[in-house]
Amino acid sequence: MKANGLLSASQTALMAVVARVMGIIDVPLRYLQRKTGQSGMAAFFLAPNMAIFAVFVLVPFVINFVYSLTGGSAIFLSDRSFVGAQQYSEIFACGNYLDPNSCKQDVFWIAAGNTAAFVVLQVSLMIVAALITALILNREIIGRSFWRAVFFFPVLLSPVVTGLIWRWIFQRQGVLNAVMQGLGLEPHDWLTERNSAFFASIGVSIWAHVGFYTLILLAGLQAIPKDLYEAAQMDGTSRQRVFWRITLPLLMPNLIVVLVLALIKAVQIFDEAFVLTHGGPGTSTMYLVQYIYETGFASELRNPGLAAAASILMGAVLVVLTLAQMAASRKNEKKGAR
Amino acid sequence: MGRITLEKVTKSFGAVDVLHGIDLDIREGEFVVFVGPSGCGKSTLLRQIAGLDKPTSGEIRIDGALVNDVPASDRGLAMVFQSYALYPHMSVRQNLAFGLENARMPKAEIDARIAEAARMLEIGDYLERRPGQLSGGQRQRVAIGRAIVRNPTAFLLDEPLSNLDAELRISMRAELAALHARLKTTMIYVTHDQIEAMTLADRIVVLRKGRVEQIGSPLELYNRPANRFVAGFIGAPSMNFLSGQIEGVSEAGTMLRLFDGEIVTVPRRADAVQAGQNVSVGLRPQHMRVAHEGENGVPVTIDMVEALGSETVVHAHASTGEPVLAVLQGQHNLSRGESLKFAFNPADLHLFDNNGVRVSGT
Q1: How large a percentage of chain A has pLDDT more than 70?
Q2: Which of A57, A67, B113, B259 is the right S-S partner for A308, CB 3.0 to 4.6 Å?
Q3: ipTM higher than 0.95?
Q4: How far is B227 from chain A (nearest CA, A)?
Q5: pTM (2 decimals)?
Q6: What is the rounded CA–CA span in Å between residue B50 and residue A230?
């Protein structure tokens, strides 16, 4: 639109075309609304999205569930035999659930244990890192926009690229060992020693995702009115008390969102960790999705039914976490409405 | 306790000068209102006093002690914010107690102060509620309560009523005045609403573009505005300004030729004016009435009439095109397009020179 508020000739022509097209579309839509009513129109407009959801989410989910009830190594469903809940029984066949080696599918339980440990450590460390980063980036620091971009940049990278970059850094002949040697320190087998490989996978995952969660927390920090801090300043509140009594409680809605999103994402850990360590050494960095992938597709004795059953179980965990997020969001909305 | 003195206080944000050497002496127990249009620097000035901002130069003293480098919390002041600035996740009681807990005050003392403030402000029934569960007026009381419990040497109030509806604003205004009368504590109040300023203040400080235009009691400002800005800002509706010319100054006062050629004598000797000098003639809308047949007055043509029952507001224009607004007592049968004259008492005229400075004398 021009500064004087009038439309240019080309804009007027475009508006005329749009009006013409809308007029043409309007005729059948009005007819449809007369026939179906307003609720029918809502279904009509939702139908394309529902179709996409069905094709790419619902149908695969159902097929996956059907696979989990079948046995054998054949790929096509028609070649597979129905075994009922046998795959689930196999997974849960354990002498002692706290000892994976007593389970028939010991690798599943090792992967589940690794995933649980990964989730607890990665999520807690990442939330602390995201919070600290957000608090720093919320201050009047020099080059604030630049630093915000720097922290967000890894989020834009493909997980495979992330994994490859860090493998290049962590490998025996990698950058980190070169730097350590330059400083006169002993090189370390970062990716072939159990604990360091595990913590490397956690560190890389945090590096890759912390920017996203920082952004959410930063938005939350900026939404806290400055007046509250000034009121606290007038009240002589120490910086620690301001953080614990004002910032943290007011940031809690964002923290809950970050917690649940990070939990869901962490349960799904696969690509960057797989590229980094291939699950090794041994099974020390094998996580659930890798187990599912290898059981279903990558091993010579592939068992798509077992993989499907494992993925259904993992899906159940994700559903619980998603419901938790929805409940937390609703609680926040209610709080906000008050 | 509670005397606040400002000497040549300036404040700049980068290259932008917001305050230009403010001198001010606020006496103990005084209710001073900073008033002025948006962007005049009144809130900035309040923040310098509060300690939320540091002046670029100049001195701020509280009870004689220089406080430029004293943190806000150590100045013994309490502030009520425009947005209330209540902690939304805390109950009213926790909001009131928060500042006192910072000072590590014994719990019994905190409870006593909260009880006293709650009684004074009638907020006892909702001490356990959160701010989000309160109305605007209740929140405002809590914000004032939070200031009261600190037992400050002075209250700083930054447009505290601006978020309230008109009716509530009037009642809260009265409550604030009563509160000041009861506490007898120095209060500095920022507003852009000149009616709030007129009704609350012992003294008003009129600010424009970071400078003090005039300091005085509400009636001093109303009756003897120092310049055309103050004359136009104080009083509602605003003062009318008509063109005129000085005819001469005598013992009887200042002779003035109005735009229509009529000569009137303002019964005050104007300061430093010369015959033939053009002046701006100020006349308040309330000081006009419809002229009788044959009586002198300002000839106008009516543009619009607002009949409010107890008074009639007439929007008109003079032959020079200058707008003229009159607030006439009672009801008048006037209509748009009608020509008439507004009579006035020459003693009610205010004269301002070309720079807007008052010249109409005492």
Answers
A1: 96
A2: A67
A3: no
A4: 35
A5: 0.81
A6: 10
